[in-house]
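Appendix C reproduces, verbatim, an entry submitted by the partner laboratory led by Prof. M.T., so that reviewers can inspect both the input and the predicted structure.
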Amino acid sequence: MTLPPNEGLQYAPTTRRTLRRIAIHRCPQVRRGRKTDANHLVESKSTRGVLIDSLWQTSPPNHNPKSLGRSLITKHHKCQWCFTQDPATHNLYTVSVWTLRAHLGKSTPRVRESGPWSPRQQYQLEAGVKMLKDRVVIITGSGGNIGRAYCDGFLDLGAKIIAADIGDQAELRSRHKGNPNIAFAMVDISNQKATDSMAELALEKYGKIDGLINNAGFFKGATFGSFMDIPPEEWDLCYRINVRGLWQCCKSVFPAMKKQGNGSIVNISSNTPYKGIPNFLHYTSSKMAIVGLSRSLAREVGKYGITVNTLCPDLIPDQDIINQQGEGPNQRTVSERCIARTQLPEDMVGAAAFLLSKHSSFITGQSLLVNGGALFN
C-alpha cells in the first residue's frame, strides 16, 4: 500500500494479548531484520511528531513500558529518506509494544514487516489519511471565513475543489496560487445560469462532481431587530439567496450526480432555528426552510445514490460580527456550551468532510448541529 509522503500517522488496531502496532516508514536502505538506523528516523513535520529514539533514551528508569507503548501509538514517525525520494518505493513496517519492552533501555527497537492489511484496516487507514482523496467538491461562499476553512481543510484531505463565490476571492487565490486541485468561479447563486456554469466548470476541469457544500448565504447584511421592522425587500433577498440559491445549486449538480449514480450534498443551515433566536426572523426562518428542503430532497434523490444532509453551525464570530454586535452574543453563547470556547471556522471542516465522503453513504436526510454542546438535537 502506498501512502502520501506527508502522512506520518498510521493506524493499526489492537490484536490478541493487547499487542498494539505502530506503523512507521522505514528507509529501504536499511536491510530487513536489522535494527533501525537512528539517522533514518527523524521528527515528523507534525507538531505531534517525536523521534522514537529520543523518547526511548529520555524516558525515566521507572517508566511503565506498557504506558510507553500506548503513548507511541499516537506519534508520527518519518524516515529522512521519505522527504526527498519517491514514496512509491517505501515499505510499511510496524513495531509492537512487546518489542518495546524487550528493547527498553537499548538504542533502538527492531522492526518487522507488517502482514497484509485486512479490509477493515485498509478502510481505517484510508479514512485517516485522505478522507476526500480525489473527490471533486463544489464549495459556494468560499470567499468567507468559513468557506476558506472548508477549502483549506478539504484540500488537505485530498479533494479537488471548485471555489465559488460572488467576490474575487483574492486571499484564497493568493494562498493556493498554482495548485492544480483548486479552481475558482465567480458565481451569483441566485442566478440559475451562473450555477449551471459552475457545475460545467467542475465537469470540464475534473470530469465529475462528487460533492456540493451549499455554504453561501445572506447573513451579515441582515437587519437585527423586530419582525415588524424587516424591509420586505430584505426578506425577499434573504430567501432568494438562502433558499432559492441553494435549490438552484442542487439543480445544477444533480444531472452529473445522477449519471454517476452517487453524490453528496451538504446544505448549511444554522443553530438559530433550533434555538428560536428572536429579532432575526427572516434569517432564522430561511435556515429552517433549508432543513425541510434537505429532508424532502433526500427522499427524491436517494434512489440515485445521492445523499442530502444539513450541517448547522453555531455562532462563529469574525471581526465584522464583533464590530456589528460586540462581544456580548459570543460570550453568552460560549457560556451555554459544554465545550466552553469560541467556535472557529475550522470546527466545521471535519463534520462537513465526513458528510461529503464515501464513509457517510448510508446517512441522508439528517441534520447535524456543530455547536460545542450548546444545544442537543
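The two ends are 40 Å apart (CA to CA). Additional entries are available on request from the coordinating office.
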